[in-house]
Amino acid sequence: MIEDAINRNCIPPGGIFVEASSGNTGLGIAMLAKQYGYRSKIFVSNSCSQEKISILEEAGAEIEICDNSNGLGDFQSTQFKAQSYAAMQPNAYFTNQYYNTQNIRAHYKTTGPEIWKQTGGHITHFLCGVGTGGTISGVGRYLKEQQQNIKIWGVEPTGSILQHYLKERSIPAQIAPFESIEGIGRNFVPGSFDPTPVDHIFQVSQDDTKAIATAYRNETGILCGFSSAAVLACLHQYAADMHLKPTDTLVLFFPDHGSRYISKLYSENTKSVAHA
Question: Where exactly are the transmembrane stretches of this chain (predicted)?
């Protein structure tokens, strides 16, 4: 998204890259902006972990905290405020990951081929969290082009609407707040979500996600991030429904590290989970 904006002269030298983010994309933008000699301003919701905010600031980003990330239709959302700020600043460019086709293209051109190469073309199933939809759309497109029978699965929090949209190709008549799992889940359909290559979207609860993160840490010593833990929770909960065979190769996509979620995932979390 940054390279596209620079190549098309959408931002002046030394300008400001603006994004609405749960933190992960924002961090990538902040780091690349600084590397290329630009500034960055990231709008995050008030659910963003303090660890992420600190990392963003260390990367040089200016941070603005908003009430929610409910999309452009909400005047208090990260998306609306980011777009409004960029529109009022002549030296700013809104990368707009929720509606930027370069979001999908980046994963089609890089993440998908990397997975295909690292599995030697033997991947049979791909499972990742769904937030903007860019990852599952881009990776899914690429993998389906290599082998149409590969299953592309997503996971989102309980109450998010993308599972319904995938099945019905419509927005639910009633939209209620979904459980908070930072980085994934939506109450609107992002333009960067292409349902075409997606076979199914599972839903998991926040409690189960937190519990599996702790169980995984205790077993492996590895701290996984919030949406990464949701992928594990999905596998734990739905393994029987996935009908996986010993010869299958399932890739679990972990986009973030648990060091960004210490206060949210690994403090005072005592709920236990049976071993998968």
Answer: none
